[in-house]
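ESCALATION

Customer reports they have been waiting on this structure for their group meeting. Please prioritize. Original submission:
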Amino acid sequence: GKEQPAPGEAGKSAGSLLVTRSASSAVSLIVSGGLPARASRETFRQAGGLLARWLVDNKVSAAILDTDAFDGLGVEQALYSVCEGLLLGSYQFSKYKKAGQQSVCSFYLKSSHPAELTATLLDIETTCYSVNLARQVIHEPANVINPQTLSELALGLAEQYGLKCTVFDSAQLQEMKAGALLAVGKGSQTPSRLIVLEYAGQKTGQAPIALVGKAITFDTGGYSLKGTENILGMKYDKAGGVSVLATLIAAARLKLPQPLVGIIPTAENMISGGSYRPDDILTSMSGKTIEIVSTDAEGRLILADALTYTQRTFKLAALIDM
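Update from on-call: job pushed to the front of the queue and completed.
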């Protein structure tokens, strides 16, 4: 056995895994989810993730899951959650690695009611595709994803999945008096952009819900410069905006009834002779002035103009600031 679970307990994070080998050399995996009374959808999602990572780490080429074992478990959509865990837990950012280092596993589901399972799997794949797409873009470094290339990516994905996409460049933002969004990007060779995505929904006449997320493609902190310990990983400061993009793609693919608007202000917070400084006073799109104490508080600046634009442009059912 390997990593055997304590009786009735889940592991500290994703559960515990028991590995057994038969005389025919087939390997059986048993994932412990803990006490049944405490099981939830998240329990099964974590179990699926643990299984996926074991398969990837051990370079397993094919695996079979008997889905009939989930009948009567009493946890709503347990199989759905396990499959989510499999697709999310097996994700690897391997674009820049040699092909030989990547692990691929064919995963088969055995079921006595395949028609129901097929529809469920399509929903799971659609959702997990968007999550993993967001991860893929978020992991990309700043020399690959900047405000311009992110805008180009959004335009291409919008066309592919039937979304309306409008990108405002720095000249247009100047006309719109987006002083906060423009200021953050002044130190970069790639000026700020505002990406606007629209999903019409399947229900006509319904007011849209707006999602607003920032995409700082890299954050040095500007003249309030981050230290060595804190600057690494600042490519992830675009996660909010990329998540908005991925959410609208999922909505379009799932044909959700609710109309959505996705607003992504994007900038690169760099240092140059043109960068904004502490003590500067900016005028935002709303007309309010902002005194800069720290140039490392750039996220709220680009969101301020994005929120103003959203409220002025759309009649909304709700606005969610991500």
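Sent to customer with the following note: The two ends are 44 Å apart (CA to CA).
Escalation resolved.
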